Amino acid sequence: MKEKITLDNAASTVFAPQLVGLITTLDRAGQPNVATFAWVTSTSHDPELIAVSVSEARYTHECLTDEFVVNLPTKDLVEQVWAVGTLSGRNKNKFQVAGLTPIPSVVVKPPRIAECLTHIECRIVDTLETGDHTIFIGKVVAKSADFDAIKNGALNEHVEPLFHLGGTKFLSGRERIDVNKLAKGKNSF
Ligand SMILES: Cc1cc2nc3c(=O)[nH]c(=O)nc-3n(C[C@H](O)[C@H](O)[C@H](O)COP(=O)(O)O)c2cc1C
After folding, report:
1. Does 3.30.559.30 match the CATH number of domain 15-181?
2. Ligand 1 test: best mutation among 36, 74, 133, 168, most atoms within 8 Å of CB?
């Protein structure tokens, strides 16, 4: 066994990579905003719930009053992900700045992002103050995707999702591992 060392890195970079989502909201004036969030996770199957942890410093925090959409960006959008994850929508239209296209959602008022692969539309049902962030819990009210995004219940093999390692670093890749297809003996515990 290798020697273990103690770390003072942020826990979010020790438990990494984390899948990146682009969250769209409407501000109080009804204008759409978009920002990058890595602290996003499913929390329940029935009802279907998704939680996102948002710092109070984000304009998105103010915009999360009712509904939001979690959009899945892929590797080709990494520069847009960085732009909308480092600029605030408080004084600018980040869709224009980053060249992202808002399209109407199926059920909720905040838009989907045309360039993203999948979209989960949510209505906020609960919030939880947690340290310097707030966890917003959304009930899933609609799901949609590019026609070829999902195959046999999982992201299609050509898709390269984007993960955040921390700071300016991201991870992407296409390797898929299906434990049912591992060589005999490797999956026989
Ligand atoms: C890869 C990445 C992941 C991020 N994840 C989160 C997150 O989970 N929670 C959060 O509050 N901010 C997160 N941010 C920071 C916000 O995206 C950033 O502050 C953004 O400018 C907020 O925009 P807004 O002020 O328009 O809401 C992340 C940024 C990047 C680049």
Report:
1. no
2. 36
Bond before 17 cis per omega within 30 degrees:
yes
Tell me the two tokens of residue 73: 């960006």
Residue nearest to atom 29 of ligand 1 (CA): 85
pLDDT digit string, tens, across residues 86-144: 999 999 999 999 999 999 999 999 999 999 999 999 999 999 999 999 999 999 999 99
Q: Any idea where the domains of the chain sit in the sequence?
A: 15-181
| Ligand 1 surroundings by CB, under 6 angstroms | 20, 33, 35-39, 53-55, 58-60, 82, 85-90, 133, 164
- Report the Cα–Cα distance between both ends of the chain, in Å, rounded: 21
Residues 145-174 pLDDT 10s: 999 999 999 999 999 999 999 999 999 999
Give residue for tokens 């890595």.
38
